[in-house]
Amino acid sequence: MTSRQPELPRTPRRLPRPAELRPLLRLARPDPDPVRRRLARAHTVGDLREIARRRTPRAVFDYTDGAAEGEVSLTRARAAFAALEFRPSVLRDVSTVDTATTLLGGPSALPFAFAPTGFTRMMHHSGEPAVARVAARLGVPHTLSTMGTTSPEDLALAAPETRRWFQLYLWRDREASAAIVDRAKAAGNEALMLTVDTPVGGARLRDARNGLTIPPALTPRTLLDMARHPHWWLNVLSTEPLEFAALSSWGGTVSELIDTMFDPALTMDDLAWLRSTWNGPLVVKGVQTAADARRVVDAGADAVVVSNHGGRQLDRAPVPLETLPSVVAEVGGDAEVLLDTGITSGADIVAAVALGASGCLVGRAYLYALMAGGERGVDRLGEILTAEIRRTMALLGVSRVADLTPDHVRLRG
């Protein structure tokens, strides 16, 4: 015979009074601004990416989002950031967190710069000027690509207060390369960034499958896409045609452009030539080993960017975050070391700086933001990254960028 459990007393219930419900009601007026409504839902770079995916033609979104071949390089780069372990120090005064630092000898309010990206006006008609104006408001540098869709002169007029850097691809035509370097210098760009990981174009299979050309061609497929994304096509067709920083026009694919225009015979002699003609900071982007970092620094580079081109060139290339410590150990006392590829949050930037980088280059993230909401979208990205950097530093017990050390991060294999 089992004993009966005593009944527990029940919580008394009642109907709530109207006065008690009133403070719980949060009925806001609908925001009539569709861009502001969209961006209010964005709290991470991933949110901005999802908004961009819905609002942009597939070929354009995939050009930004995709990488080479099986996209293993990009996947591994992001996985390295996801797998790392932060190691916080507690009982530290973080009532004030200072995110300011120095990049290439000048001030930066945050430890990153906006990276060079090609064909930026294809993502949104406001293009590079919108991104550069946000960079000025954030207090970070902006890098214009040789394949950008705004000239160095026009960008200087559109964003005169921005710290402006210029990224260079060396053409087969050296006279044309020298001319664009002279234009960049005359337009007030303070640093020159030579990209060295594009002797030939990577196999960007999403672009091939989508039939993407620059600018997008009017085909049965794109005409059908107009019905799905009328706002994007209206903006493209009702604004100035795409023009490039360093060439007047192009009508093929990105890979065809690289293979036609870029010089696969680029050597250390070309770096020495640039060093002799450029008197400002000279950066080499696309370094993937400590040995190559030493070679380019010995040849006169003031900084290197540890990068595999966002995974868009050689698939299964070295993971930049994992390569970073060896590059810092090799040349960190002689040159600045920056990092890009795989960055999707302010916490990623903090991790890279803790491992020895002076700062990071942020590219895809601002293109997602641009597609999501134009210039206001990039402003929203700035707010997100700033908050994430500040919060991560505070939770690590660090109040200054200079106090981040490898003790705060552990790479997990």
From TrEMBL:
Keywords assigned by UniProt, alphabetized: Flavoprotein, FMN, Oxidoreductase
GO MF term list: FMN binding; oxidoreductase activity, acting on CH-OH group of donors
All residue ranges annotated as the FMN hydroxy acid dehydrogenase domain in the record: 37-413
Binding residues annotated for FMN, in chain numbering: 116-118, 145, 195, 285, 307, 363-364
Active site: 309
Cofactor needs: FMN
UniProt xrefs under InterPro entries: Aldolase_TIM, Alpha-hydoxy_acid_DH_FMN, FMN-dep_DH, FMN_HAD, FMN_hydac_DH_AS
Residues reported in the UniProt entry to bind glyoxylate: 63, 167, 169, 204, 309, 312
Family that this chain belongs to: Belongs to the FMN-dependent alpha-hydroxy acid dehydrogenase family.
Name this polypeptide is given: L-lactate dehydrogenase (Cytochrome)
Origin species: Actinomycetospora cinnamomea
